[in-house]
Amino acid sequence: MTSTVLPGTPRRPSAARLGLHRAAIEVKSFFRERDAVAFTFAMPVVILALLGAIFDGVYPGSDVTSAQYLAPSMIAAGVASTTFINLGTGIAADRDDGTLHRLRGVPMPPSAYFIGKILMALVITVGETVALLGIAVVAFDLSLPTDPERWLTFGWVFLLGATACALTGIAASGLAGSARSAGAVMNLPYLVLAFISGVFYTPVGQLPEPLLTAGSLFPLKWMAQGFRSVFLPDSILPQEVVPSWEHGRIALVLAAWCIGGMVLCLTTFRWRSRRSR
Amino acid sequence: MTATPTVRVRGLRRTYGDIVAVAGLDLDVGAGEVVALLGPNGAGKTTTIEILEGHRRRDAGEVSVLGHDPSRADLDWRVRVGIVAQASGDLGELTVREALSHFARYYPRPRDPEQLTELVGLTAKATARVRTLSGGQRRRLDVALGIVGRPRLLFLDEPTTGFDPQARRRFWDLIRQLAGTEGCTILLNTHYLQEAEALADRVAVIVGGRIVADATPTALVGRTAARTVVRWADGRQETDDPAALIAALTGRYGGTVPELTVSRPSLEDVYLDLIGDAS
Ligand SMILES: Nc1ncnc2c1ncn2[C@@H]1O[C@H](COP(=O)(O)OP(=O)(O)O)[C@@H](O)[C@H]1O
Ligand SMILES: [Mg+2]
C-alpha cells in the first residue's frame, strides 16, 4: 500500500522525535513520583552514605579506605538500580495502569516507547552516578582519576553495564504479574546480587567460594570490578578475587548480557497484561 | 460509489476458555452515525469494541473498520481512530495540559490543546496533576485524548460510568457536539439505557454476545406499541385498545375509575423485556 503525501499535508512525526518527547515526559513523571525517586534513585545514595560511614579501616598494603572501596561498587549498584529496577518496575506499571494500552491506540511506532524509556533511564543513571561520585569525593575523599585512559574505561564499563541491566530489566518486567508485585520481583534479585557481587560485602575476595561463583554469572559483579579499576589504585588488587582487573573478561560478560538481554526482550516482551488479550 | 459502512461486522466470535463472550455478532455503523451498543455487564461490549479497535484478537468473523481489518491496522489507520477505553489510570504525575500537549504530538493535524481543554471543560484544571482529578474530570480528559487527533471514528467504552446526573448531561452535550458539528462517527458502549436514548441514532441491544435488537430508539419502543398498559386501583392490564378497556372499567365502577393511569411502554420496559427474554 502506498500513500501519496500531498504538498502541505503534514506527516506523522518520526519515531526518533516521538521518542525524545516521550523521554521528556518519562523523566518528568519519574521525578514527580515519590516512590520511584525514593527507592530507585535515593536508595543507593543512602546506602553509600550509611555503609561508607559505618565501614572503617584501610586495606593492608594500600591506602584505600573501606569507604573508598565501597564507592565504585555502589556506583555499579546505582546503575543497576536506575536501569534494571527502574525499567522493570516502570514497564510493569505501564502495563498495569493502562499506559501501554493507551499507547497502542495512538499512532506511535513501538520503538518510540523504547527510545523514550532508554533515554529516561540514561538521564537518571547519569544523575545517580554524579550524586554517588559527589558523596564519595566529598565525604570519603575518593580522588577522581586524571588519566584519560581510566575515564575511557569508565565510559565503556558504564555503557555496556547500563545497557545490559536496562535490557534485562525490560525483559524482566514481564515476569511480574502486576505492578504491585514488580517491586518485589525486581528488588529481591537485585539485593541478593548486590551481596554476592561484593558490593555490600567488601572486599569481594573475602566472599565464600560458591557465592562468588554465583555472583560471577551476573553483570553487577563485573561492572563493580570495572568501576573499581577506574577509581582505585592497583595496590588494592590483592583484595580482588584474582589479582588483576580482567578488563577483557568484564567486556565479554557485559556484552554477553547485552546480547542475551536483547534476545529476551524480543522474545518475551508483552504489550498487554495476561488478563486482557 | 456505494457507501460502505464505517464499521462492518459479520459473525464475530470470541471465547475465553469456556466463556463465549461474543457469539456471532453482526453490526453496521454508517458514516456520521452515532450507534450505542447497549447491554448489561458481561454482555460482551468491551470484547467487541476492543476487537474493533485492534486491541483483542477474534476467533472468527469478518471485521472492517474504516475499510481495514483492525487486527492488521497500521499507524495511518490509528490517526483516524479515536479510543476512549473503559478504564485508565495512567498519566497520573502529568498535568492536564502536559498530557494533552504530549498526545497532540502523535498526530499530523492535532487539535489545539488549549481549545480542547476548554471544549471538555477542564480549563480550570489545566495545571492540575491528572491523579488529583475527580472520576468525571478524568473521564473528560480521556475523551479529550481520544479526540485530540481529530478522528473520523470514535470508540467510547462506558464513558459515563460513575458520573453524577449533571456531569452526565454535560458529557452528553459534548458528544452531541462532536457528532453534530464535526460529523464524527461514534460507536459507544453503555449499560445506561438513558445514555443510549439521549445520544444514539441507533441502539443495538447486546445480550450474551449477540445483538438481539438493532433499531432507532423510537422504533424500538414502536415494536411493542400495541401493548399499552392500563393501571387502576385494583388491577393492571396490557391492551391494544385502551379506550375500550377504560370504557368497560368506567361501566364497572359506575363512574370514575380510581387511580387510573394509561401508559405507553417506555424504552426501559422494552429493554428489560429484551434482556429478560434473551437470558
Ligand atoms: N480477558 C478475559 N479473560 C476471561 N474472560 C473474560 C475476559 N474479558 C472478558 N471476559 C468475560 O467475557 C464476557 C464478556 O465480557 P466483556 O466483553 O467485558 O463484557 P461487557 O463489556 O459487556 O461487560 C464476560 O463473561 C467476562 O467475564
Ligand atoms: Mg465492559
UniProtKB/TrEMBL annotation, chain A:
Q: What is this protein called?
A: Transport permease protein
This protein's membrane topology, according to the annotation, is: Multi-pass membrane protein
InterPro entries reported for this sequence: ABC2_TM (IPR013525), ABC2_TM_bact-type (IPR047817), ABC_2_transport (IPR000412), Nod_factor_ABC_transporter (IPR051784)
- The species is Micromonospora lutea
For this protein, the record's Pfam families field holds: ABC2_membrane (PF01061)
* Keyword Transcription attached: no
Q: Where, per UniProt, does this protein localize?
A: Cell membrane; Membrane
> What are the UniProt keywords, alphabetically?
Antibiotic resistance, Cell membrane, Membrane, Transmembrane, Transmembrane helix, Transport
The chain positions of domain ABC transmembrane type-2 read: 35-272
Superkingdom of this protein's organism: Bacteria
The UniProt similarity line reads: Belongs to the ABC-2 integral membrane protein family.
Which PANTHER family does the record match to this protein?
NODULATION PROTEIN J (PTHR43229:SF2)
Major location (coarse): membrane
Among its keywords, does the record have Transmembrane?
yes
Q: Where is the chain membrane-spanning? A: 36-55, 75-93, 114-139, 151-172, 184-204, 250-269
TrEMBL record, chain B:
Q: Give the bilayer topology.
A: Peripheral membrane protein
Chief localization: membrane
Q: Which residues form the ABC transporter domain?
A: 7-233
Write out the entry's keywords from A to Z.
Antibiotic resistance, ATP-binding, Nucleotide-binding, Transport
Compartments it resides in: Cell membrane
Family per similarity comment: Belongs to the ABC transporter superfamily.
Question: What is the official name of this protein in its record?
Answer: ABC transporter
